[in-house]
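Example record for the data management plan.
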Amino acid sequence: MQDRNFDDLAERFSKNIYGTKKGMVRQAILWDELDALLPTLRAGPLSVLDAGGGVGQISSGLAARGHQVVLCDLSAEMLKLAEAHALAEGVSHNMQFKQISAQQVGEHLDKPVDLVLFHAVLEWVAQPEEVLQALWRTLKPGGVLSLMFFNRHALTLRLLTLGNFGYLQANMSKRKKRTLSPDYPRDPEEVYRWLTDCGFEIEQRAGIRVFCDYMKEQAAALKDVESIIEMERRYCRQEPFLSLGRYIHVTARKPR
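Corresponding structural encoding:
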């Protein structure tokens, strides 16, 4: 078991994750969550760590608001894309880029940070509890972890609706490693327990893509992305829809 490095799939990852209608929905709900938590942190420019930040879509947006961001990633190819994106957005002066793992990042920070982004990474790491503990140590007291992870329950439901029983019976064991399907889909209750075991206080949760991934292809094609986002916003914080989101976002605070 080892953590995933996206050097071999960086361009494909960027195109398939961000350059789609589903990617736009994901970004919209993530920004809703961030806009809710940012006012709870100290005034003035924040120190932000984007751990496993990939292309840096969210962190470059924070840098555009004047916040100081350190983006780290194992993949040199992903970092190249992130630096190019930051340059195109005119925010490079507010960002640093480091080719290191999330587990190592505390050794490379001058001081603890106000906010940690850890988006769509937990499902790729072999030792999730160890990573969450490392991120806990990077945060100031009162700081917040913005965690988004791939939801095992949503994947199970999707496979059932597709009739892909064999994959379920094989315990979701992947035959091919060079895919964008996560290596370790996460059970939400396990993730919540890991967070509280670290010492985090969970303040808010939201499902991301609670229905649009289940839409029939023809129906999805007929709907514009704005109407899909509107309905996602309506249901993403309500159960049972929250727990069926393809991803789940958790706002978790380190107590003062």
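Summary line stored alongside the record: The first strand starts at residue 47 and ends at 51.
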